Amino acid sequence: MKLTLKVWRQDNVNDPGRFETYEATDVKDEMSFLEMLDAVNENLIESGHEPIVFDSDCREGICGTCGLMINGQAHGPQKGTTTCQLHMRKFHDGETVTIEPFRAAAFPVVKDLMVDRSAFDAIVQSGGFITADTGGARDANEILIPKTAADASMDAAGCIGCGACVAACPNGAGQLFTSAKLAHLGLLPQGQAERWKRTEDMVETMEMFFGSCTNYGECQEACPKEIPIDFIAMMNRDYLKSKLKNRKLSGQKY
Amino acid sequence: MSTITLDSKVPSGPIQDRWDNHKFDMKLVNPANKRKFTVLVVGTGLAGAAAAATLAELGYQVKCFTFHDSPRRAHSIAAQGGINGAKNYKNDGDSIYRLFYDTVKGGDFRSRESNVYRLAQSSVNIIDQCVAQGVPFAREYGGLLDNRSFGGAQVSRTFYARGQTGQQLLLGAYQALMQQVSLGRVELHTKTELLEVVKKDGVAVGIVTRNVATGDVQSWSGHATLLATGGYGNAFYLSTNAMNSNATAAWRAHKQGALFANACYTQIHPTCIPASDDTQSKLTLMSESLRNDGRIWVPKQFDDNRPADQIPEEDRDYYLERKYPAYGNLAPRDISSRAAKVVVDEGRGVGPLKNGVYLDFAESINRLGKETVFERYGNLFDMYERITDEDPMKVPMRIYPASHYTMGGLWVDYNLMTTVPGLYALGEANFSDHGANRLGASALMQGLADGYFVAPYTVGDYLAGLLGKGSVSTDDPVFKAAEQTVHDASHRWLSIGGTKSPEYYHRELGKLVWDYCGMARDQNGLEKALSEIPALREEFEKNVRVLGNPDGVNQSLEKVGRIADFFDLGELMCRDALMREESCGGHFRVEHQTEDGEALRDDEDFAFVGAWEWNGAGTAQTLHKEQLVFENVKPSQRSYK
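Above: the input entities. Below: the structure tokens describing the complete assembly.
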């Protein structure tokens, strides 16, 4: 099949950027979306034009590196699917496809379709861990974890940090990402000791970079791992509690 | 040629006590002195992130580098199946000794016994450590940890987190790393790629990097440098590795004098989705765990074009169950891969391109019910369906082997130090513990063992000897010269102005390496490859087209340097394979096989590690041998019948 691509090109963060139009010919059903772009890039290089910059790595939907707005949707039209796992059989001959970077104030464009998502690392750095220095762990089976708790924790831990939730959100909010990490750790017994401090620190770091959540729910629709917004509810509840608990934990008596 | 003698520094004494004794014998650095030392850690996969976090916890100044935009993107994240741990939680007769034994045997008696024993010992601590960090391993209803069996083992010792074990373990290590970043003990440099290893007076003193976002070239000085930069599977072009996985860090170290060992030991994973056309950029692995419940078969007849469900039982050949009744569909990876190649080469392959075999869940669905099967493998089935448009609950999966892991790598001694003092290699980047074939669920184990439990001790032992010595300034001529090398290379690539993209040459190189140094190798083919690869390389250097400039993002420039290193490496793989006149594990020389087509080792002449020394571009490397000694596991022909 043949497609017309309208692709966002932007040289650097200060460049205003523009759409450019390219033809993708000989597109096969079996190609992934990024393989289609690889082919376009190879033609661009061989005809002396700089290739389109986009991020991708594992191409198995797990590393979270790739992510494009395809016809206005984060990761494109297929539910529960990253850009790299989206295949061209989802498109039809003659279609015009608009390709943009993930759009959010917290994700400045580096070049073309590549954005800087280091704000996510800043959130994790502020508390997205369980302190357990190497060497001091007790036997793994001494911690009993109900299967349901482990499963729910794993549902949240499946987040790949791609940023589709932020790109899809009209507010550019980072709630789904942050709440997934908080739920992963907060649902496990090992995560209890730092639960309230972690919640307060991560939520407040998030607020420094991202917009506010107003319950549009676009994030869970766009999430390639289908992480539910229930975790945001849990985070909000925990955040409220943390404001009281942390005061008590830091020695306030009443 | 230099006079290198390979000293493995393996401690003496009973194998059970060697690591403990060695830990006691190693020098310590007191806490106040630890912060005087800077350790550079390159790579943030399991080995790198674990080492960086642990060294920082101990009090060293750590600088950590990754070319990814975040440490969490490293390709360890894609490991699906699980991690081995000799916990014997299933009461099925597992022990540290049995894991050790299985690993030495599985590696076809081409690994170092002492390293493997230490790995098996560490496996137990890894599971404890990961649980403490909050890795959500699968649980049973009572709250205890669940285990499953995995290819090449008869006990259930594999811990897993759905089909995303690598992801969860990496997030654990990443989070530990980010905590150390927040405490100011690790200085993290993302989007920063190693391009040169710098030596002064024969000792590693630092690295030169290029920032892939800004193009800045910068030097970093450290008392010790740890490379945890993964394997070289992308030399085949099509592999299950990530697009950016590359061997450049290891290769630049090799060019600085670090010997590169066992390059021909590459693992071809039996359960990948077959290639569908020539525009494919990578192959996708389907976890080996599928072999627990899937049965592998092809039609008995050649060119049987009936759909799978119309081929009756009597016309099916469950060839693994037939050839290896004791292990059946769980036969080790090298054996399963070769068996698939045999039936496809015979013309009994399935699928539109006749390039796969069936992995069939129909029997399990009948036995366990649809729900149970879907609960176990649902995420893998979904992934398969997205790629192929076929539902494995209804039609059998099609699978075929693909390059997946490289057992070869930088030669290291028992302390994980390369032949360059102060330069270490961890995880898949070293030649390490898997011999000629790696068992399933052992890569995660080795990466974390090296990172959490081995390097933090052994690096300290080296640093203790440097007390009182400052690090070399990055203004030193050795750094300036290395920076100039990087600038010159960028300039050279950008000024060629050829006609073909870097990707084109990578694909062509991959075809040569796969055809001549893939699942089966012979003298003719390897000799042919050794003349064709340099010829292609010559064309590549004259005709590749890299556009743009060295400042800012330039993905073609990143790629072209990596491909140049794959050219060298592909050549070394062939040279190593040609030298090794035997078959063992993932290395199958068609001249050396038993009557029924199994690998035929030659322990008399080839029970050694083949470590190659760089002699400059265009000159063949020199071989050095480390003789392998087997005091505990007696080499025998591996039988999985």
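Note for the figure: The longest helix of chain B spans residues 555-579.
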